[in-house]
From TrEMBL:
Keywords: 2Fe-2S, Iron, Iron-sulfur, Lipid degradation, Lipid metabolism, Metal-binding, Monooxygenase, Oxidoreductase, Steroid metabolism
Rieske domain span: 25-127
Summary of subunit composition and partner proteins: Homotrimer. The two-component system 3-ketosteroid-9-alpha-monooxygenase is composed of an oxygenase component KshA and a reductase component KshB.
Record-given protein name: Rieske-type oxygenase
Cross-referenced Pfam families: KshA_C (PF19298), Rieske (PF00355)
An annotated GO BP: cholesterol metabolic process
PANTHER family: 3-KETOSTEROID-9-ALPHA-MONOOXYGENASE, OXYGENASE COMPONENT (PTHR21266:SF60), IRON-SULFUR DOMAIN CONTAINING PROTEIN (PTHR21266)
Species of the source: Thermomonospora cellulosilytica
TM region(s), chain numbering: none
Gene Ontology molecular-function annotations: 2 iron, 2 sulfur cluster binding; metal ion binding; monooxygenase activity; oxidoreductase activity, acting on paired donors, with incorporation or reduction of molecular oxygen
SUPFAM superfamilies: Bet v1-like (SSF55961), ISP domain (SSF50022)
Reported cofactor(s): Fe cation
């Protein structure tokens, strides 16, 4: 034991980052971009994948490295429903089987490569990752998003950003109420989490920050209500309502990611807004683009923190922090074999934070910032 430990100094603990990648559906982005008749390389799950659409329109995801001599299929050509390797033209089907070797009499027995189960739904392409190789269980299906295919709603406005951190950092946000004030300049007034099975929900209400207002033009936003659920380890659907004087704006925000490797991931957002009297026609598309910009800004705020923070398995919490340990236990279910998922990982857990003290403290801080701004100083 070192002198500091005997002095009762809290020591940050962090085990090695898991070598396996989470079991579950992962969104690779809008399906549209994979439908140009070409193969696409995607770095994910510590390897390289090839995504391609066959003549039949179906999207396929295979390991990019050809099992013949290791050629990179993402540099190949789509021929019919198969991907042809650029090295010796072996043809691979979306099921992972070698269908044809043009210069050979027959295909070797068991000529099979890794194929990922795919889901092409609501304009997005998903792959099912499972280190044990089981098919996706129906109860973990990604729910449909009615607005995504409705004319009353805009098309997806999509962003993606490479983040150099382990993806547990983004999942931690689910329970982290206080960072929304300090990092994202929002003002949570209500905060609750519910975890159950493969879902983790965050319910948050917030008010606008007069000390962080970006512009005084147009209608003032009063606050927002957000009901955000992770379906599995990486795909969050947020029903997000912005409250303005006299009207609401309904949006669906997706916050999703897939791991590139243990130390980096692709963070994506998608947003659609509902057309309404307050937001007719083009105005809704404009709003979706504007909100997408805010979301991107929010990601950049998180990324600034993640860039230099330490990985920490034993966070030191105060009473007004959310249930980080329970969330981590929920998240653990995706990193163990199905047979090792314990009831504690999936049991229903509810926790509503008492926001009395944070709200008091934040009101005072907002007042101080406003006073400083009025006096022409920079906010504290
Ligand atoms: S390496 Fe792919 S066909 Fe030879
Ligand atoms: Fe955040």
């Amino acid at each position: 034991m070192t002198a500091t430990e005997s002095d009762g100094v809290r020591v940050i603990e962090a085990e090695a980052i898991p070598t396996r990648y989470a079991r579950g559906w992962h969104c690779l982005g809008l399906s549209e971009r994979f439908r140009d008749g070409r193969p696409h390389a995607v770095r994910a799950f510590g390897g390289r994948l090839v995504v391609f659409a066959g003549e039949d329109g179906g999207l396929n995801v295979l390991d990019a490295y050809c099992r013949h001599m290791g050629g990179d299929l993402s540099e190949g050509t789509v021929k019919g429903n198969e991907i042809a390797c650029p090295f010796h033209d072996w043809r691979w089907g979306g099921d992972g089987r070698c269908k044809k070797i043009p210069y050979s009499r027959r295909v070797p027995l068991r000529a099979r490569t890794a194929a990922w189960p795919t889901l092409d739904q609501d304009g997005m392409l998903f792959v099912w990752n499972d280190p044990e190789g089981n098919p996706p269980p129906p109860q973990q299906a990604i729910p449909r998003i009615p607005g995504a295919t409705s004319d009353r709603w805009t098309d997806w406005v999509w962003t993606e950003t490479v983040v150099h951190a382990n993806c547990r950092e983004v999942v931690d946000n689910v329970v982290d109420m206080a960072h929304f004030f300090y990092v994202h300049y929002s003002f949570p007034t209500y905060f609750k989490n519910v975890f159950e099975d493969h879902r983790a929900t965050q319910i948050m209400k917030g008010r606008a920050r007069p000390d962080a207002r970006r512009s005084s033009r147009g209608p003032q936003m009063l606050g927002n209500t957000s009901v955000a659920t992770y379906y599995g380890p990486s795909f969050m659907i947020d029903e997000l309502t912005y409250h303005y004087e006299g009207f609401d704006i309904n949006s669906v925000l997706l916050n999703c990611h897939y791991p590139i490797d243990r130390n980096s991931f692709v963070l994506q957002s998608g947003i659609i807004t509902e057309r309404s009297e307050a937001l007719p026609g083009e105005a809704a598309d404009e709003m979706a683009r504007k909100l997408s910009g805010f979301i991107q800004l929010g990601f950049e705020q998180d990324i600034r923190i993640w860039k230099t923070k330490a990985r920490i398995d034993n966070p030191l919490l105060c009473e007004e922090d959310g249930p980080v340990y329970q969330l981590r236990r929920w998240y653990e279910q995706f990193y163990v074999d199905v047979a090792d998922v314990t009831p504690e990982m999936t049991a229903r857990f509810e926790f509503e934070l008492d926001t009395t003290r944070p709200v008091e403290a934040w009101e005072q801080e907002v007042e101080r910032n406003l006073a400083a701004q009025a006096a022409g100083e920079r906010p504290a």
